[in-house]
Amino acid sequence: MSCKTCSTNGIHPGCKSNGSCGVDSCNKLTVFDWLSNMQPEDESAQLYVEVRFKNSRKEFYKNSENLSLHIGDVVSTQAKSGHDVGIVSLTGPLVAVQMKKKGAEKDKDELQKIYRKASPKDVSVWQSSRDKEKEIQKRAREIIIYLKLQMKLSDVEFQGDGSKATFYYTAEERVDFRQLIKELAKAFGIRIEMRQIGYRQEAQRLGGIGSCGRELCCSSWLSDFRSVSTSAARYQQLALNPQKLAGQCGKLKCCLNYELDTYLEALKDFPPTDCKLQTEKGVAFCQKTDIFKELLWFAYKDEPSNWHELHKDVVQEILEVNKSGKKISSIEDYIGESSETDEIKSYLEKDVLEDSITRFDKPRNKKRRKSKNRPRNKQKTKS
């Protein structure tokens, strides 16, 4: 899924779109430019450009030099100290839409600018500094273990000019890393910046394959992380198994919120799952519900293994009768004639069982061949 050489060389050598294909992780959280074939009416549409750096980090810059930029161009951008190198990920009028979506429209005057298109020297320095990241990350983890700090170093990102490195880490509590910065600066001879990120942001930066077999939502298209609670799993009648409900970040999966609104809307006219039906045979408890088929299964207290299927409207009717202080005779009187099991049986009898399973097989030849190992009749010899 992810490009193996993106983390070291910046652009996948086999990608003919110069790293902007949007298929692999060489362009995480990409935006499809559906206005790419249209000429912008005003020049202000080319004033702002979106630039992508390592993994999912993207920032907006001013094109104050009026450079002719296209998606996939490597540019040299302004930084707090020195310069950085990134890849243009979006141009044109869609940049203004993304700036408004991410709240960067208010700070247009404070945006940094693009110096130029990256020269061969800029690209060589950028690639050489990216090649050091794995070794520095390994060495930094050894220093963290030596200092016995309760933190996890997840990623290292170099600035384009190689003068600064940003260390991304996760920690449950506040960490005093002043001694760590001294050790890192002494060992590598560069400026150090420590940046704490959450567990979901860590999974977004590193990427991976989810249990569904596809690339993680957070590293491919999901940009806002909403809180996910266990009630979302309860509404969808999922087993509260932490191994299945947790993602690679260790938190509950973000996809639990995708269908939650549909379930909540379907549950509005649904009787509560803890309802009890008062009958002359005894009290019946709800054992199972099917929200979208609008069915409930009830069982008597004395017969917990014998379930009876009822429609939600029928259950509401029985509850109204119980509210008036009356009891129904039994649940069996309210079971519909055409239940789900009867429909399945009728379908099997009419459509499936009428057709022969071997109707397309070739008929066997009735003539049997004499087997070689068949015993022959031998004449009995007299003793």
Q: How does this structure look, described?
A:
By secondary structure, this protein is of the alpha+beta class. Among the domains are: 6-118, no CATH class; 226-268, no CATH class; 276-335, no CATH class. The protein has twelve helices and twelve strands. The chain has helices at residues 6-9, 94-101, 120-131, 133-147, 178-188, 199-206, 217-220, 230-235, 242-245, 260-266, 312-323, 340-352, and strands at residues 48-52, 58-62, 74-78, 83-90, 114-117, 152-158, 164-170, 191-196, 276-278, 283-290, 295-300, 307-311. The strands form three sheets. The protein has a five-stranded antiparallel beta sheet. Helix 4 (133-147) packs across helix 5 (178-188). The protein is elongated.
Based on the model shown, name its key terms:
single chain, 383 residues, alpha+beta, five-stranded antiparallel beta sheet, four-stranded antiparallel beta sheet, 12 strands, 18% strand
Please provide the ordered H/E string of secondary-structure elements. HEEEEHEHHEEHEHHHHHEEEEHH
The oligomerization state is: single chain
Cα shape: elongated
The profile of the biggest β sheet is: 5 strands, antiparallel
Radius of gyration: 34 Å
Strand order of the largest sheet: 2-1-4-3-5
Structural class: alpha+beta
Helix content: 25-40%
How widely separated are the two ends? 83 Å
Short description:
By secondary structure, the protein is of the alpha+beta class. The protein has twelve helices and twelve strands.
